[in-house]
Amino acid sequence: MKLRLDPSDEHMHPLEAESNFNESMYFNVFDSEANLGGFFRLGNRANEGKAEMTTCLYLPDGRVAFMFNRPAIEHNDAFDAGGMRFEVVEPFEELKVRYEGKVVILDDPLAMADPRTAFKENPWAECRAELTFRGISPVYGGEPVNDDGSPIPESGEGFARGHYEQHTAGTGTITVGDQSWAIDGLGLRDHSWGPRHWQSPWWYRWLTANLGPDFGFVVTIVASKDGGRHIGGMILRDGAYEHITDATIETDWVGDDLYHQAIRAVATTKEGSYEIEGTVKNLVPLRNRRTSPEGEELLTRISEGLTEWRCQGRTGHGLSEYLDQIVDGRPVGYDG
């Protein structure tokens, strides 16, 4: 098996027959001077007749401006739905992100654990974001294929058959209500395609960070229900990636609902080990519901933590994304 990745993969892939085929892009950015960051995601699920659109902005005063919507779509020809649009200017070098629409303003971002109430009881504002993302690193990932280049068959229970990531610099403007910020920050983007159920992983941890344009990381641990673990990611050093061969993550949890608050990780590459500490500064809990073929109601929580990271004497920011299936009211990856 090997990974295949071409410049053409920056563009849309043919819509496949699986009912849960997903193609998505994600961008995060944090500007330390403005003390503002966030992420944008658009996932096309054309065979289901909808997209998944998320705008999440961590504002300087601790509030969060947030929007999630499932706009109707009929094809997989573009990332353009729900007021959000992604444009590839030059593959692996430059992409543009635009969002224009409403956001709910959350004084307490944890209120999004009950989205219906949060959307109903909090104020709304107009939002406009226009950002350009430029690659500051190689691209990590691709689509697994056989050694002869032929595709590898898979079931519809996957999560991201094709997937790649890249550290980026993001510039532009973000406006929320009557406030506007010029953005000049760092972040990470990804692109995925293939059948996806959010319930496919039992749990995962996805830690992304920039500690300067020359130093950053992605640490990933994905766990299956049978106890298996897949560890991946990379360390960005001076424009090159060191691939992570092993990693451990320890978490301090807070609250009755058990949200991650402090993180200690060790990431190992062929070049050495990196001790990483993180403190969550703000967190938004998101969720996905699905009924299994057997009629079981499944609940997945994706906790999105804006995180201050420390490693090798440097400090930076990024996201810590904790996905857990929720069983008997508790996240299955809880290790407290």
Structural overview:
By secondary structure, the chain is an all-beta fold. The chain folds into two domains: 6-149 and 163-196, Beta Barrel (AttH-like fold), CATH 2.40.370; 198-336, Beta Barrel (AttH-like fold). Helix content is 2%, strand content 64%. The protein has one helix and 21 strands. It has one helix at 115-121; strands spanning 2-4, 21-31, 36-45, 50-58, 64-69, 80-81, 84-90, 94-106, 124-135, 140-145, 162-176, 179-195, 203-210, 215-223, 229-237, 240-254, 259-269, 272-291, 297-311, 314-327, 330-331. The strands form two sheets. An eight-stranded antiparallel beta barrel has the order 2-3-4-5-8-9-11-12. It has an eight-stranded antiparallel barrel with strand order 13-14-15-16-17-18-19-20. A hairpin with a 4-residue loop joins strand 13 (203-210) and strand 14 (215-223). The longest helix is centred in the middle third of the chain and has 7 residues, at 115-121. The radius of gyration is 19 Å and the shape is globular. The two termini are 37 Å apart. The model has no long low-confidence stretch (mean pLDDT 95).
